[in-house]
Structure formats: C-alpha cells, structure tokens
Design goal:
Shape: globular
Structural class: alpha+beta
Number of helices: 24
Strand content: 15-25%
Helix content: 25-40%
Radius of gyration: 33 Å
Distance between the termini: 70 Å
Number of strands: 37
RNA sequence: GCGGACGUGGCGAAAUCGGUAGACGCAGCAGACUUAAAAUCUGCCAUCCUCUGGGUAUGCGGGUUCAAGUCCCGCCGUCCGCACCA
C-alpha cells in the first residue's frame, strides 16, 4: 500500500476510535503494580451540544491522561453527566418534552460528539446523576449525614414570584422582576433543608494550607468566602435598662464613634415592633421587595426606619443611640444587628449622610484628628485612636484588645469569632432533582425514609403546564404511609441542589457498587483525584461543597482522605470576535454568526450582501452575541487532531483562548506538515549521527514532558514546532530518521489519531507496540540535555554591548578576563579600569565603568 | 458594594531563580515553484535615528538594584465570582 500524501483526518479519526474501543485501550486496569493517576475534568451539564469550552477542557485532560499512560501509570479518566437542573424543566415548559427524555437525548448526542474528539476515557464508568442508581446512593449518603447531625431544617428566604406563585432562582430574577411574569419579586420565608457546612468552617479554612497544588487565587477566594473574623459580641440595653439585643462588630475599637444602632428588617425585634407600627411593617415589606442576591443587597440604595427607641452606649449608660431598622444589615451574618460608626465604615457613612446622623472621627488619618468628620469617603486605614477616652493614642489592634478585655471584665460582651460562611441551603422547590428522602407525618413529624426503601424515585408523570413544583401538586406520588407509624403521611417534595450531585461524583467514578455509594477499599486506591481541571467559575461554590462532603464523609469514617482534589487547574474561556450592525439609536445591534461572515485582514463583510459589518471585541462565546463556533463543524472540516492542537496552542491554558479561523487552519497545516515529516522515517542518508540534532531531540523529549506535566501545553506545542523545524532543516542521517519516529511519540498525547496512523505506517521492526496508545514515552539521555557551549551577554552599565560564546561552566575570573579582552569592550572602556565587574557564570557579565 | 485576577509587537504569546525582552505560532510583505490557482518552500517582520552603530520600548507615574516584564508604592483599564445558573 502506498502512503497517502495527505493525512485523511476524517477516516483516520473514525478508524482509530474504533480500534481503541475494540482493544479496550483506555479501560482502567486496577493493577496495583503501577502508580495510579486519577485525571478528572469537571463533568458537563447535558445542555444539548458540546461547545468549544468543553473541547478545550477535555483536550487538556486527555493530553495529561494519555501522557500518564505513556509514562507507566494506571490511569483513571472517566466521564459522566451532571444531569439534574433547571434547563430541563424549562425545556419541559417550553417544548412540552419530559425533562428526563430531554436530558437523556442530550446525553446521547453529547456523548457522540465527545467520542469524535478521540478522548482516552474509560466509558465503562460513565454515570448520570439523574439516574436512580446514582441519586439513590446520594439519598443514602444524605441520610448518613442526617444521622450524624449534619442536616438541619431552618427558615430562610427565597425569591418569590407573586404572579406565577413560584420560587425563582437568582438567575430568573431580571431587574427585580420574575423573568416570565414580569412581576416584582418578593422575598418569602420558607422552612428548608440545610447542610451544616459551618461546622467545618475552621477545617475548610485550615485545609486550604495543605492544597499546595491549587492556584493561589482559588485558595484566597475560598479563604475570603469562609471569611473568619474576630471581633466583639455585646448586648445593647434599651435606654432605661431593659434587655435589648446582641450586636457583633469586627471594629470594637471604633465604639466611641458610634452614632446609631441598626437591626436587620428580618430581626425578631423589628418583626415584633412592626406588629404595632403599620409604618414599620410597610418599611419591612419594602425591604423584602428585593431579590436575595448579595450584589443587589449591597448596591441597593441605603434605606432606614427610625424606630424611636434608643439603646445605652455600653461604655456610658447616659449616652443614648437611636435604633434604626436598616436594609443593608443582614440577618444571616453575626447577630443581625450592628452599631453604626459612620466615620470609619462606608455604608454607615452613606446612611448617616442620608438621615442626618452625626459622624465622629475616632481614628486619626495622619495628622487629622478633628472629631467632626467631613467628606464622603469613610477612613478605613491605619492610625491612632482619638476622641476615645481611655483608648486615645492606641493603635487599632491595641484598642480592639483593650475594649474586648474591658467588655469581658465588666461582663457586657465577649471576644468572639464569626464566619461569613453560611450553612448550605440544599432545598429546591423543583421537580428535576434528587428527591429528599423524608416523609412528613402528622403524628411522628419528620421521618427519614428507611434505607431499604431507597431510592425514592422521581415519578415519571409530572405536569409542567403551570409554574411551580410538580411534585408538590402530584396526585399520588407524595402520599405515602409513614415509615414510623404506618399512618397517612406525605413525602418531602423539595429536591436537592444540583451542587450536592457534584459533591461526590468523583468517588462514584472510582467505585460504583450497586448496593452502596462506594467501596472504601477502592476509594483508598484511587483518591484523591491527582489532577482536576475545570472552569474558574467553580472556584468557590462547587469546589468548597466537594471539599465539605469529603470532610463530612471522612468524619463519618467512610473514607480516609480529607481533601478530594490534590491538584487543581482552572482553565480560561474560549472567546471569539463579534460581528454586528447597528440598527439605529436606542436599538440593540444585530449580531451575525462567524458562518455568515467573510473575514479578511482589513475587516469583515456579510456574505449575503457583501457589505461590511462591525468587528467587535473578542469575548466569551455566547448564543446572544452569536460568536459561537460549533465543534462538530470543525471536526467535519479539520478532524479531531487539528481541533485539539489548536485548543492547546498559543494561549496559556489558564488564560482565555481567542478562537479564529486562521488559527484552526494553521493547526491543520501543521498536522499535514507532520504527516509529511513522518514519511521520512526511513531516509537515513549515509547513516551517520547528527550530534546537534540529537541534542535538540533529547532536549525536546525532556522539555515537552516537563511542560505537559505542568499543564504548560502552549509551551509544549512551541517546543514541538521548534523540533519539527530543526528536523526539517537537518540533512538526512540516522539521527534524523530516529527523530522523525520519536516525534510521533511526542505528539501522540495531543494528536493521537495522526500518531496512530504514522505509527502504523512504520515497519514493525521500528515500533515497540502495535498501537501508540500502548507505547511508552521516549527516554531522554541526560548527557544530551546540556549544551557544552553557552552564549554570554556582556553589558556595560546594564546595557547590552556584546556577546561571546564560551565553554559551559567556566569560572568567574576566566569569564571576566574573556569579557575584558573583547576588542569592543576594550574600546568602550578606553583603557580605564572598570569600577566594578559582576559575573553571573554561564549567563552574563555586567561591567560598571 | 464586597472579593479575586489580568495588562509584553498588528494578534496569541515566551522569558521556570532579579541577569541578552519578543522563542514558537497567526496575520502581513517579498521571492521561488506553477500556464494559473491551491498546496509547498525561502527570506523579512517592535519602533525611531545621524544605521559596521545607537536611542526608546513589557498599561501609566514613582522607587529599590550593577541589573526590573519579574520586587515595592500609587494610579488607570479590562475581565470573573457573589451562596437558587451549571
């Protein structure tokens, strides 16, 4: 058979994907004599089609998984589906399809798309969270957490659409209104299920210190999210001495700057007072006409209601502070009440200005110590205490210590720690999620469903014709006998937050017995995940919840590990230019897809009319901006290897990757160029060695390995390009033929189909295995990694003036002498002795004249 | 509002420890091959000047150092997350 002059990607992709499947190449072997490598990419939500972000994510993980196989590891590289969630219910409402059918159809088409990428995945471990064999085990774990006291019920607020009579997600609240009804959203208090993540606040914070292979920014974000703060909790007495309420502050040092006390609209005192004050009741109503998202609360106009009551200042009973109900004080944080110190807190200052409350400086801003504070910016910097009686002259920290000591001595308060982290509300008033395995019995109360009766399966018949939770109005499903007394009872109709599903799936991938969530022995072998890869958008919630579940299961004695992900990598987004035309003032621009556009160096035109369009900024691919490129079309045109190669080229993986037509074409050309080069594996010339090329080859073997290992794919790509250039330029030799063969192995993790095709074309005597999928990574010869000559820069006063090539490893004196002997340097020195000479061996000489 | 990051040629970037800024790729320009096109190959490609050399350049302004893209201080710009989107 003669070798094709062009690489036929489409046929090769299909051929090798079939061959790997037939050989079961990527099944995990569970052979204990090899080191294990658990490579995991965040599993996708089955939205219907894969997008370029998925391609990038899975290409990266796949390169690492294949590389680990080549370096002798037993690799676990699984795939599954985060299959519960809101879009399925939306589809049910809009298109009349059942969420289950919609989801399973999506999974089937996305699985087919992913397989076209040629991923080295053990598909026998595939799971979907919407299937009872998964969520039933999740219900079992939920009952275990309940038994361990980590599940509670509490009241909390949800977004309520008063027209549709349904709970809304934050995402469904647009400018304070329900996305379908357009009604103003209200906050509504519901009794809900919570997981007690706050029990683990301290260890989740401490544990961050052990995560050396996590990005610093993610650790910092989690640290701030958990938000440990030390402060003072104390009680205000009402003016006259009646018991008042507790407040918490992180700035007890500013107590002499207090000018009011403020409580949350949800504070019990506010609710009690509202019973006798229609005005206050109206005000509280107004505060509740607002979503629950933090951003909305923080950016809302400051509003307050003067209750007319006063409290005594704890340091001076004769000093009375007015009590206000205030919209920016949260019931969830601290005690739901604060004292306001406008001079040194921006929110308090805005509030004080609006309502004409006094503003007293108690921290000196440099020389500025005047008690009357002017300006619109609160002073939050360091400084000495002023206008604060016994605290005057102290630093902020000293004053904090002094106040806390006095409060504890006088018994009106105590030093305490509070957390920003709140317990995790897992109740969702929705159909398409894991049913919470509890029954409400009029006689026995809240009763857990016995494990023997699990799974509590979602009913297939559900009515989506009206908004709201179909489980709640289901005619039969919710009515059951109480597991305790056998009397009439009703099921819990809330389902679990989908973040619960993704908090333990990495365990189920490793071990999925039918009668329990996982086998601890098998978990011991595989966990933690060695490399986890996913989007930065999961930096806090998903990653914190998964850490919490791992620690909770550890506490229950079910697993040994405390942290699920030994190493974390957060990848950037795939972006693209936008194409649009203005539709006139006040109207949104009309966007066009890349398919409708001809792009050239100067700009872009619309193919249908040949007239120009505006080329907009490079932003994240999104349907609304139409700057989306469909992976399937790219695979049809260029094949999997070119797509994978482009995804790994140029941009560092943690940064955004701008997709471009020119870029994928460049990747395609390189695939073809390699194919031609791989055809040269038998051209030995006269059979001689090529020492220089040999060095470059071995440096590339070591360099590409190091780059892949550290996920520096763009750097590995650059090194492969450079090596290909060097091989092409080299004269035929035994070394060059060997380099061509070795290059097949170096590109194999990234371009597996091309590598298999080229490998198969080698004479059998020249390959170690039948398939590249089973081949080993080449071994770099340490002797060839070091050059014997180095180019040394010669600077004068820090500016480059000359370079010289010297044997590597020369001592400082010899290098200095060589530099000073250079004619150019001698000329510039003009015979004068240099003032100072700095020599960095094998790098540079800096002469200070 | 709070929290986090990022900023280097026309573009994506590299520079791993404070030590020759711009490797590698994309786009572009010139040439070779070709009846022609595609494909392929070769060369050029930060910027300015008085051009065998020299100056200026890593968002802007300062600082430390023999030496700063890298360290410190202050700005500006862009992006991401904010607990019921996944």
């Amino acid at each position: 058979m003669t070798r094709e002059t062009r690489f036929g990607a489409l046929a090769a992709d299909a051929r090798w994907q079939k061959a790997w499947e037939a050989a079961n190449s990527f099944a995990t072997t569970d052979s204990a004599d090899k080191p294990k490598a658990y490579i995991l990419e965040m599993f996708p939500y089955p939205s219907g089609r894969i997008h370029m972000g998925h391609v990038r994510n899975y290409a990266m993980g796949d390169v690492l998984a294949r590389f680990k196989r080549m370096t002798g590891h037993d690799v676990l590289h699984p795939m599954g589906w985060d299959a519960f969630g809101m879009p399925a219910e939306n589809a049910a409402m809009e298109k009349g399809v059942h969420p289950g059918n919609w989801t399973r159809d999506n999974i089937a088409s996305m699985r087919a798309q992913l397989k076209r990428l040629g991923l080295a995945i053990d598909w026998s471990r595939e799971l979907a969270t919407c299937e009872p064999d998964y969520y039933g085990q999740e219900q079992a774990l939920f009952l275990d957490l309940f038994a361990a006291g980590l599940v509670t019920r509490k009241h909390s607020y949800v977004n309520w659409d008063p027209v549709d009579m349904t709970v809304l997600a934050n995402e469904q609240v647009i400018d304070g209104r329900g996305w379908r009804s357009g009604a103003l959203v209200e906050k509504k208090k519901l009794s809900q299920w919570f997981l007690k993540i706050t029990d683990f606040a301290d260890e989740l914070l401490e544990g961050l210190g052990s995560l050396d292979n996590w990005p610093d920014k993610v650790r910092l974000m989690q640290e701030n999210w958990i938000g440990k703060s030390q402060g003072l909790e104390f009680s205000f007495r009402m003016a006259g001495g009646a018991p008042g309420f507790d407040v918490f502050t992180t700035r007890p040092d500013t107590l002499y700057g207090a000018s009011f006390a403020a409580i949350s609209p949800d504070h019990p005192l506010a609710e009690r007072l509202a019973k006798d004050s229609p005005e206050l009741a109206t005000f509280i109503e107004e505060c509740r006409r607002q979503g629950t998202a933090a951003e909305q609360i923080d950016t809302a106009e400051k509003m307050g209601f003067d209750t007319g009551l006063s409290v005594e200042h704890p340091l001076d009973p004769n000093w009375h502070l007015p009590v206000w109900v205030v919209n920016y004080v949260l019931m969830d944080y601290g005690t739901g009440a604060i004292f306001g110190c406008p001079a040194h807190d921006q929110r308090d200052l805005d509030f004080a200005h609006k309502y004409g409350l006094p503003v007293h400086r108690v921290i000196a801003d440099g020389d500025e110590t005047a008690q009357h504070f002017t300006g619109t910016e609160a002073y939050t910097g360091p400084g000495k205490l002023v206008n604060s009686h016994f605290l005057d002259g102290m630093t902020i920290d000293e004053a904090k210590t002094a106040i806390i000591a006095r409060a504890e001595h006088e018994e009106w308060g105590k030093g305490t720690t509070v957390w920003r982290l709140r317990d995790w509300g897992v109740s969702r008033q929705r159909y398409w999620g894991t049913p919470i395995p509890f029954v409400h019995c009029p006689a026995c109360g809240m009763v857990p469903v016995p494990k023997a009766q699990l799974p509590v399966v979602l009913p297939e018949d559900a009515d989506f014709s009206v908004p709201g939770n179909p489980l709640d109005r289901h005619p039969t499903w919710k009515h059951v006998a109480c597991p305790g007394c056998g009397g009439e009872a009703v099921r819990e109709t809330d389902t679990l937050d989908t973040f619960v599903d993704s908090s333990w799936y990495f365990l189920r991938f490793a071990s999925a017995p039918s009668d329990k969530p996982f086998d601890p022995e098998v978990i011991r072998r595989w966990l933690p995940v060695d490399q986890y890869i996913g989007g930065i958008e999961h930096a806090i919630l998903h990653l914190l919840y998964a850490r919490f579940w791992t620690r909770a299961l550890n506490k229950l004695g079910m697993i040994d590990i405390r942290e699920p992900f030994a190493s974390l990598f957060t990848q950037g987004m795939v972006t693209h230019e936008t194409y649009s035309r203005s539709q006139g003032e006040g109207l949104p621009p009309l966007f066009f897809t890349p398919d409708e556009i001809s792009r050239n160096a100067d700009g872009a035109t619309l193919e249908s009319d040949g007239a120009p369009v505006d080329v907009g900024r490079v932003i994240k691919m999104s349907k609304s901006k139409k700057n989306v490129v469909d992976p399937d079309a790219i695979l049809d045109q260029y094949g999997a290897d070119a797509a994978r190669w482009f995804m790994l080229s140029d941009s560092p993986p943690e940064r955004d990757l701008p997709w471009s037509e020119a870029g994928i074409e460049g990747a395609w050309r390189f695939v073809q160029r390699l194919w031609r080069l791989f055809g040269d594996t038998e051209n030995m010339g006269d059979g001689a060695e090529d020492k220089g090329l040999s060095r470059k080859l071995h440096q590339a073997i070591a360099g590409v390995a190091a780059d892949v290992e550290s996920l520096g794919f763009n750097k590995a790509v650059a090194k492969i390009h450079a090596l290909a250039n060097d091989i092409e330029k080299a004269k035929p030799s035994a070394t060059r033929a060997e380099a061509c063969r070795t290059l097949i192995l170096l590109v194999a993790p990234m371009m597996p189909h091309l590598a298999e095709e080229a490998w198969a074309a080698l004479p059998p005597s020249q390959r170690t295995t039948a398939m590249v999928a089973d081949a080993a990574w080449p071994i770099a010869d340490p002797a060839l990694l070091i050059d014997d000559e180095v180019t040394i820069a010669i600077q004068m006063a820090g500016k480059l003036r000359d370079t010289m090539t010297l044997p590597k490893g020369l001592d400082k004196d010899a290098v200095e002498a060589a530099a000073l002997a250079r004619p150019r340097i001698a000329e510039l020195l003009g015979g004068a002795a240099p003032k100072k000479v700095i020599v960095v061996p094998d790098r540079l000489v800096n002469i200070v004249p």
